[in-house]
Amino acid sequence: MNETRTVQVRKYDESLHYEWTSRLIEEDGECILLYAGPGRTLQHHTRQACYTYQSHSLECFMRRDGFTVQLDLEPDGAIRHYCNIGLVPRLDGDVIEFIDLDLDLVADRGGEWRLVDEDEFAVNRVRFGYPDDVVTHVWNTIEDVNRRIEINDFPFDGSLEQRLLTLAKEGISCSSSI
Description:
Blueprint: E1 4-10, E2 16-27, E3 31-36, E4 40-44, E5 49-53, E6 56-62, E7 67-73, E8 79-86, E9 90-92, E10 95-107, E11 113-116, H1 118-127, H2 132-151, H3 159-170
Parallel strand pairs: 1-10
Antiparallel strand pairs: 1-2, 2-3, 2-4, 3-6, 4-5, 6-7, 7-8, 8-10, 9-10, 10-11
């Protein structure tokens, strides 16, 4: 499959935060899986910068849930896990839009997950005027993600790690940029 998808991450006011392009690996009723190999570039609009990554990356966008999971296979062989909390992704052709609501869950090298960016959430909650239902959505989503992690439920069941290792071994390249 040689299709690509552009990911646009936006803030609550719809301003473009950052974006990148990755290869579509799988798309079904539950999620969209994207892969990018070393050389992937990310245009960070908020910081007015462009970053190039040397890791293999597998991104999972849940179709009905307000979180994404990104796994990066670092050059040293470690897999880094990052989970963004936001609104349910929107699809428009080959573009996936995701509203980032600041809070993230990050796993350390020992597999312990921790919540980060609570200060950013507090500031942006006021700055963007997050309504009460959005704040409730954020905390309910974090609770759901933590439950899934605890019971090893998809996408935290180990299947994405295996998929990433297979893709990296096959040497599928995707150095697409914006």
